[in-house]
Amino acid sequence: MSASVLSTAIWTALLSLTALLNVALGPPVLRGGQPGAAAIFPEQIAAQQTAQTLPAISAPEALLADSATGRVLGSINATQPRAMASTTKIMTALLVLERANLSDIVTVSPTALVGEASMGLEAGESLTVEDLLWGLLLRSGNDAAVALAEHVAGSEEAFVDLMNQRAAELGLTDTHFANPHGLDADNHYSSAQDLWRLAELAMANPVFRTMVATQSHEAAGRELFNINELLGYYPGADGIKTGTSDAAGQCLVGSYSQDGFRTIAVVLGSQDRYSDTATLFDFSQEQYRREPAPEPTGLTSWIRAADGQPLRVTAPERPWLFLPAWQWPLLRSQFVSNGAPPVAGQSIGEVRWYLGNQLLASAPALASEY
Question: Is 86 a catalytic residue?
Fold first, then answer.
């Protein structure tokens, strides 16, 4: 047998084997952007290290997190317990909202007239729970904190027991309360991580969320101004609670929202809480991006109809992804066919987005005309 005849026979056998395999196993369903390790260049390694390290701030304890994903973007000694001053009032407000009605009438007792930060209450005065919450969260009134505590639990001591019980239920292992207002006291402490988790829960309450985002409000004949200078200073700032004391220093649990998504920062023991918090928020915007997943490209982006007409593979309902900026160029898309004949306007499977071997998201794929 000549060499050319032998070569032809070999190729015929290989083609026959391929055809048999296709019949037995079916056609491949994955097209383009195969998941796997992607090349990372030195500049991307440097960007990765930058995104994992918070910028220099004065606060010895801090945490920055994305609320939508629950992702901690960076932290400094975030589980270190320390005095937290009036950020305590986040828990006070949460318990009041869980256990009292806004329309309840509270008569202020003489024991509620705690000094320092004050709403200016008078013994015997009657106010609603809502009025007292405005004084608690805007003016950071210690008197409002005790008046609310006595209303909810009968005494300040009983309310503190509720605070610690709630902290235990929430798994806040770095937290213990000695009072409802945050004045320095033995055995009164929290951590940046616990305050972040507590703030996330409180911000899920629409009344709390509205109050902490408000710069001024009239309650019980008093014009109350929010102590939180982040409001009106940082674009999108909408909360949450300040705190200052000798033991705690300057504290702030801050929030800003953009496109409906929230970022929370906690700084404790700061020398300049507003500057520190703004620095952390700037960092989140510089180092992270939230966008719809990219449209399929390359081999992932087209398929042929039965008549040979090329059709685009599209994902009209692309999910939003939140990733460090340096990771976006490493995203890979993959089209997975559902086996249906490709027809313009019809479902043809799904598009999947990978980072390396990690599946991040998927969405229905449609065939569209070019």
Answer: yes
